[in-house]
Protein: YdcH family protein
Amino acid sequence: MEEMDMELVERLVSESPKFRMLFEEHQLLEKELNEFEKKRYLTPEEELERKKIQKIKLAGKDEMTRLMRGYSISVN
Structure:
């Protein structure tokens, strides 16, 4: 992310409980995905779980982006 975006993220994390929750969930999901990446092979169940986590993470990122845009517009 750009420096300006990171400043906005930090601000929203401190000011918006919803954004903070999404951000923390995003970080946890990233850690879970990293654990899958460490494995040489994934079982079919693990692969399904990995894909499920990716979808949840992407949906959360989309929501954070929406909140960031809304915040940017209301500030300007």
Q: What stands out?
A: The mean pLDDT is 91.
